[in-house]
Write a structure and sequence with these properties.
- The structure holds two protein chains of two kinds.
- Helix content of chain A is 35%, strand content 15%.
- By secondary structure, chain A is an alpha+beta fold.
- A five-stranded mixed beta sheet of chain A has the order 2-1-5-3-4, with helices on both faces.
- In chain A, α2 crosses α5 and α4 crosses α5.
- Among the domains of chain B are: 21-27 and 476-622, Aldehyde oxidase/xanthine dehydrogenase, molybdopterin binding domain (Aldehyde Oxidoreductase, domain 4, 2-Layer Sandwich); 36-404, Aldehyde Oxidoreductase, domain 4.
- Helix content of chain B is 29%, strand content 23%.
- Chain B contains 20 helices and 31 strands.
- Chain B has a seven-stranded mixed beta sheet with strand order 3-7-1-14-11-12-13.
- In chain B, α18 links the parallel β29 and β30 (716-721).
- The chains are: A alpha+beta, B alpha+beta.
- Chains A and B meet through α2, α3, α4 and α5 of A and α1 and α18 of B.
Chain lengths: 166, 794
């Protein structure tokens, strides 16, 4: 018979809000966000680190939250899909997804949104081909990807234009 | 009637924005695993690690004592909780089935596929439950395995279940016309053997179920990620011996379905049994590895076929045999091989047909429909044969198809085949040659030779291929839809139809709102509603057709009532009134009344007459019965580049010309097709469940089993045609499976075309680089041997 595994206390910010949770060391960041922070927008699709549905931003980098332990995020700044919109106002990328019919069942959508957000944050001047290449990190079974690619490229253009105008 | 979708101002035919999207892009979807209930317990299943084994009685002592473990169940523990039986008897009826193979909820005595659930552990967390599953002591004594469906049918083959006399679950076929005479008279005969492999559905969200009993009412409440809440409710009522009112089933947001979620699964029953037994909420969420082994799969078939043609390339007859891999249990029935056999000759004029089908039980995950449901295989086989026929007759591949396609003037076209109900097959409408011609024009079929030559000059090998298909859609008999205007003035639609991500709510909102003021935002939904006693759910590309027809009819009735009550209250003639948003108003006047007021008035008051109507309420329930199927059709043309040195295939362009009748929402139709094309591309080139000789699956992660990603998905050109179906008032046909059906056939045709000088035959799917390279090498050796032989003779 095995012993109960001791839990550890960790602190991080999620979408700007400080959180302290007590979790088993083996608990993934995905499960920590979903179960201990109540943020169920991050979805778990494969738990093998392949499908990317669980993608979140940790200190600005897109990561697979199923491949990272919650404890490893101690002290980190995390962004999830719940942090994209500002109140009622959707982020340009979310609007582009709707406009381009880039989602159907919506299960993979949060992962794609965070993957693209991370890529555009990291390099606002990213070329279309690079962006398309990055999109191949995540899996979608409904859309056939073309509308997701369109939404991503359109958003990159929108952001570039608004930056130019500013 | 055909042509562009029609009524000015109509919502049907407009790419109305999806009402589903807002919450989903915010991360506010409500998928099964997002449903939180205080005190919820979690389940892990101990599953068979081998394909066929004798098992004893599990020793649960250690597992039950693990931290956080609340209960552990074997088959013997579940039996008393399930007074109506502990097997899922869900097979569609067929006299061809030789023996029943109803799945047990948990296996006892023997396991028959890798992934079969044996023990259920309920604990305070999933992790604790999984820990305990590791601590169950149970010997799996391996038994001989039926791994391959073809050898499983041979005399003396090991039975997949130790009690079975053989693995031949069913033998049936299709037979009309005089095949012997057709082949005797043939100017040309072509033959081929074809294999299509097994793959999965892989909705990004796996299955999952949450069950609890309501402490006040005693009702068993179940939420499941299912395409068919009604079917699950039926099984729950049967097995728990409860009346309809004592069970509710709801489907939350579904993270995709693609077929296998239409099946009722042992886990759904087991989790409900634990919830009843323990008196608290219990949840199980499938992980991806479980999805790879325990969610149903499809497609493995082995065909051996022969086609007879006259000197002009007209088909005279088609005959042969097919072996279908059924998996280890009957989770749905013979519908997949039936669909394959029925669809094979449907789109062409085939005067004589003789197909013998053998359905083999194997020690693999049970087989039920995956998007396409037997039709991709049929299309693969028929279209590969058409290419061979073109070669034998010296005709262009496009030309021989045009000569044989059912013509528009033959519509509606009675075929000498029967649906599984026994009804004769009747192609309802469509212009098949016109569809093919539009795909040819878009792709520049006749200009390909020049493109090919130009590429060859650069050392690149291009090929072009084509596949026609039809899809049987709108499986009857009906779907229930209730439309009701609530006291708030909002329109409520309740239906057994179930959403799985396609945009069903948006489509039904368009159909209903079209009759009730054309504001789809006023419409709310209870989808997959089991409060309604009769319903089916989502499968067979049926819901826009059958639920659409009922929604259309119900909304029309409600419209009539709205106008009557309004006319009565406003003291004007009905024909002076129009409905705009939630308001009924005089067309040429200033009187108006809103839905909220009308709904309240229409309910009636004690002791007073109803306001202008005979039946109270602004409500109508319709179950429009449609027994015949609406056939969508299309033509896919693929251009590929093949690297003969490595066997690698790259898709150049993909065109699909298709006709799904009147389109309710063209953007959503495109979405369905694009997703289907991606799945089809997976079936053409990548997706293959690999097993070893002991039926142990080797491809159980997305790193081993390859789904198409954005890098492999080409820009696809989709062309719409709209030939209305005469079978329903809206003129619609289904489209959910269309994209997937022709792709493997078209791509195989293109690959063979690219390698035509090498004499390589592509008679299998998926076409992996390894498999294709092996064919190229073999063809080269054959060529060399022939060359030497000829050299020796000369």
């Amino acid at each position: 018979m095995t012993e109960t595994i001791a839990k550890t206390e960790i602190s991080f910010t999620v979408n700007g809000r400080p959180r302290t949770v007590t979790v088993e060391p083996r608990k993934t960041l995905a499960d920590t966000l979903r179960e201990d922070c109540g943020l169920t927008g991050t979805h778990v699709g494969c738990e093998h680190g392949v499908c990317g549905a669980c993608t979140v931003l940790v200190d600005g980098k897109a990561v697979r939250s199923c491949l990272m332990f919650g404890a490893q995020a101690d002290g980190a700044e995390i962004r999830t899909v719940e942090g994209l919109a500002e109140g009622e106002a959707l982020a340009p990328l979310q609007e582009a997804f709707i406009r381009n019919h880039a989602l159907q069942c919506g299960f993979c959508t949060p992962g794609f949104l965070m993957l693209i957000t991370g890529a555009l944050d990291e390099n606002p001047d990213i070329r279309d081909e690079e962006l398309t290449e990055i999109l191949s990190s995540n899996l979608c079974r409904c859309t056939g990807y073309r509308n997701i690619i369109r939404a991503a490229i359109e958003t990159a253009e929108t952001l570039r234009r608004s930056r130019g105008a500013a | 009637m055909s042509g562009a979708t029609g009524v000015p101002g109509s919502l049907v035919g407009a790419s109305v924005g999806r009402r589903e999207d807002g919450p989903l892009v915010r991360g506010k979807g409500r998928f099964l695993d997002d449903l939180g209930v205080p005190g919820c317990l979690h389940v892990a299943f101990l599953r068979s690690p081998v394909a066929h084994a004798a098992i004893g009685v599990p020793d649960l002592t250690e597992a039950a004592a693990m931290p956080g473990v609340v209960a552990v169940y074997t088959a013997a523990d579940l039996a008393p909780l399930l007074p109506g039986g502990d097997r899922l008897a869900v097979a569609l009826p067929s006299s061809a089935i030789a023996f029943a193979l109803d799945r047990p909820i948990l296996a006892s005595g023997e396991t028959v596929y890798v992934g079969e659930p044996v023990v259920m552990i309920v604990a305070e967390s999933r992790a604790a439950a999984e820990d305990a599953a590791d601590a169950v002591w149970l010997d799996f004594d391996p038994l001989p395995v039926a791994a391959d469906p073809v050898t499983a049918l041979e005399e003396g083959a090991a039975p997949a279940h130790s009690g079975l006399p053989h693995n031949r679950l069913a033998e049936f076929g299709f037979d009309y016309g005089d095949c012997d005479a057709a082949f005797a008279a043939a100017a040309h005969r072509v033959t081929g053997t074809f294999t299509v492999d097994r793959g999965g559905s892989h909705s990004m969200e796996g299955r999952g179920v949450l069950a609890r009993t309501d402490a006040l009412t005693g009702r068993l409440e179940v939420w499941s990620s299912t395409q068919t809440p009604h079917a699950l409710k039926k099984s729950l009522c049967t097995l728990f011996e409860r009346e309809d009112a004592a069970v509710s089933v709801q489907a939350p947001d579904l993270g995709g379905g693609f077929g296998p979620k239409l099946v009722t699964y042992p886990e759904e029953i087991a989790v409900a049994a634990a919830a009843v037994d323990l008196g608290c909420p219990v949840k199980w969420v499938e992980d991806r590895r479980e999805h790879f082994t325990s969610t149903t799969q499809e497609r493995e078939q082995h065909w051996s076929m022969e086609m007879a043609l006259d000197e002009d390339g007209a088909i005279l007859g088609l005959r042969g045999s097919m072996v279908h891999d059924h998996g280890a249990w009957t989770a749905r029935g013979l519908n997949v091989p039936y669909a394959s056999g029925m669809m094979l000759p449907l789109i062409y004029r085939v005067p004589a047909y003789d197909l013998k089908i053998a359905v083999a039980v194997t020690n693999k995950t049970p087989v039920t429909p995956v998007r396409g449901a037997g039709q991709p295989q049929a299309t693969f086989v028929m279209e590969r044969l058409m290419d061979r026929a073109a070669e034998a007759c010296g005709l262009d591949r496009a030309e021989i198809r045009l000569r044989n396609l059912v013509a528009p003037e033959e519509m509606p076209c009675a075929k000498e085949l029967k649906l599984r109900s026994g009804r004769p097959v009747m192609l309802d409408s469509g212009d098949y040659p016109g569809t093919q011609k539009s795909a040819m024009a878009a792709t520049g079929w006749h200009g390909f030779a020049a493109r090919r030559a130009a590429a060859l000059a650069e050392g690149r090998r291009l090929g072009i291929g084509m596949a026609n298909y039809i899809e049987g859609t709108g499986r009857g008999p009906y779907e229930t839809v209730t439309v009701r205007i609530l006291r708030s003035g909002r329109i409520h639609v309740a239906t057994g139809a179930a959403a799985m991500g396609q945009g069903l709510a948006t489509a039904l909102a368009q159909i209903v709102a079209d009759h009730l003021g054309r504001d789809p935002a006023l419409v709310d939904f209870s989808l997959g509603d089991t409060a309604e006693p009769y319903g089916f759910g989502g499968f067979n590309s049926r819901q826009t057709v059958v639920a659409g027809a009922s929604a259309d009819a119900a909304a029309k009735v409600v419209r009539t009532r709205v106008l009557r009550v309004a006319a009565h209250l406003l003291e004007v003639d009905e024909d002076e009134l129009e409905i705009d948003g939630g308001l009924v108003r005089q067309r040429n006047g200033n009187r108006s009344i809103d839905f909220a007021r009308l709904a309240r008035e229409a309910e009636g008051l004690p002791g007073y007459d109803l306001p202008g109507i005979e039946t109270p309420g602004l409500m109508a329930t319709e179950r429009v019965v449609i027994d015949d199927m609406a056939y969508s059709n299309g033509c896919c043309v693929a251009e590929v580049e093949v690297d003969a040195e490595t066997g690698l295939v790259r898709i150049g362009t993909l065109h699909l010309s298709h006709d799904c009748g009147r389109m309710v929402n063209p953007a959503m139709v495109d979405g369905q097709i694009l997703g289907g094309l991606a799945h089809g591309l997976g079936n053409a080139l990548y997706e293959k469940m690999v097993y070893d000789d002991e039926a142990q699956p080797l491809s159980v992660t997305f790193a081993d089993y390859l789904l198409v990603t954005s890098a492999e998905m080409p820009e696809a050109d989709i062309l719409h045609r709209e030939t209305y179906s005469p079978l329903n008032a809206l003129g619609v046909k289904g489209v959910g499976e269309s994209g997937v059906i022709p792709v493997a056939a078209a791509v195989a045709s293109a690959i063979e075309n690219a390698l035509s000088d090498l004499g390589v035959r592509v008679d299998f799917a998926p076409v992996s680089p390894q498999a294709l390279r092996a064919r190229i090498v073999a063809a080269g050796q054959r060529g060399q041997a022939n060359g030497q032989e000829q050299g020796a003779q000369s």
